[in-house]
Amino acid sequence: MQFAQKMCGNIAVITPDQLENVLRSHTIDVLVQLAFPRNVSEEKWAAGIKYSIDILFLAKKYGVKRLINVSSQSIYGLQRRTAAIENDGIVLNSPYTTGKYCTELLAAGLFEQGMFTNIRLSTIIGPTTTERVPNKLLASIKRGNELTIKGGQQRFSFLDVRDAADGLLRIISGTSQPWKPAYNLGTQEVHSLLSIAEKCNQAAFAYGYPKVHINLSPDGTFLSNELDVSLIEKDFGWRAHYRLNESLVYILDHNG
Question: In terms of DSSP H, where are the helices of the chain?
Answer without folding.
Answer: 19-25, 42-61, 95-110, 133-142, 161-172, 193-206, 230-236, 244-255
